[in-house]
Design a protein that fits this description.
There is one protein chain. The protein has about 350 residues and is of the alpha/beta class. It is built from 15 helices and twelve strands. The protein has a six-stranded parallel β-sheet, with helices on both faces. A six-stranded parallel β-sheet has the order 9-8-7-10-11-12, with helices on both faces. Helix 1 crosses helix 15 and helix 11 (about 265-270) crosses helix 14. The longest helix is centred in the C-terminal third of the chain and has 17 residues, at about 330-349. It starts with a strand and ends with a helix.
Length: about 350
């Protein structure tokens, strides 16, 4: 079987959808599915005009189309799939809810995104999404297509050797003691203000490993905190190797307001790190407070959680060990099996 696994603008977009797409492809490497990454016959839409005029076709050949973004390239793929009876999978990494509070103006634009997403996802033979929570969001639009939750998984192999980065990374960014950290793009939806206010209220070193916008597209909170961070907060910018972040940090703090799953949370868990999360529906779906993480609803609960972890090494160890087991339940092997089953199911219908 040949399956298109497409992420348009792959060389320009960043964030969880890029990681999720690349994990899908890696998960399929040990299956009977041959992955095609570009839908275009000659590799891109412009050069493929030549193959079209030569009578060789505009689109590549594949048995099932799987798109991971919602832009014009994916719309073209969806239309081609519908015209040619090719099963179409649309992966819902983007919702109106998680679009808000990400860059300047995104919260104002988010309501207008809903009708487009409703139309786009409704073209699918099957919509995949990372969680039951995301499924409920899509159903509320409502999306008129079958919706199936499927974990993004975690690439535990990509985290191997994270420990070797600890000393150099801590020295590079002047980090000491119990380091509270986050990984990923810096914006308000991920709990940036809570992260920084907690730093101001405590004596621990805080580090946010990941890129941030500084230009006019940056959100208000991003500009505020990145340009004038608390003394004990370090914004590292883009990291060449994510293992450096997980090696340097001790407690993963992710007070996100909205999330579809949280791949970096699973990566921290795969490294056996204790994790502190905001108590929201999507995290309750996958994790258990007091077992593999600590969940907090108020600022005071976040403060207390960090204090407990600082004072109790046994708690850190127990949560970390349980977290590692949770991450193992989201292995790429399982993702590959479920994707393969899904593709075959759609082709055989």
């Amino acid at each position: 079987m040949r399956a298109l696994n497409y992420l348009e603008f792959e060389d320009r977009v960043r964030g969880g959808m890029v990681t999720a797409t690349r994990q899908q492809r890696k998960a399929l490497e040990t299956t009977d599915v041959e992955v095609v990454e570009s839908p275009w016959r000659a590799g891109n839409p412009v050069q493929s005009l030549g193959t079209l005029f030569a009578g060789e076709g505009y689109f590549a050949e594949y048995d099932v189309a799987h798109c991971n973004l919602v832009g014009p390239g994916s719309v073209a793929v969806a239309r081609h799939a519908k015209r040619n009876n090719i099963p179409l999978v649309l992966h819902a990494h983007v919702t109106k809810e998680d679009f808000a509070e990400s860059f300047r103006g995104s919260s104002q634009l988010a309501p207008a995104l809903e009708p487009y997403l409703r139309w786009f996802y409704s073209q699918a033979d099957l919509v995949l999404c990372p969680s039951e929570y995301t499924k409920s969001v899509l159903e509320s639009y409502p999306v008129d297509a079958p919706i199936r939750p499927m974990s993004n998984g975690v690439d535990t192999e990509s985290m191997e050797g994270y420990e070797q980065f600890r000393e150099d990374t801590r020295e590079r960014f002047d980090l000491d003691g119990m380091v509270v950290y986050a990984v990923g793009e810096v914006f308000e939806r991920k709990g940036l203000t809570t992260f920084c206010e907690l730093a101001k209220a405590t004596d621990y070193d805080f580090a946010w490993f990941g890129p941030y916008d500084e230009g006019p597209q940056a959100g208000k909170a991003t500009r505020k905190w990145v340009n004038d961070p608390p003394e004990n907060v370090t914004f590292t910018g883009f990291m060449e190797d994510k293992r450096a972040a997980f090696g340097a940090g001790d407690v993963y703090l992710f007070p996100a307001k909205v999330e579809n799953q949280g791949i970096a949370v699973l990566e921290a868990m795969a490294c056996g790190k204790p994790v502190v999360l905001r108590d929201i529906d999507v995290f309750r779906e996958f994790f258990e407070d007091g077992e593999d993480c600590l969940m907090c609803s108020t600022f005071e609960e976040f403060e207390d959680a960090l204090e407990r972890l600082a004072d109790d090494p046994d708690l850190r160890k127990r949560l970390g060990e349980n977290a590692r087991e949770t991450a193992e339940a989201h292995s790429l092997e399982r993702v590959g099996e479920r994707l393969t089953e899904t593709y075959h199911e759609l082709v055989e219908e």
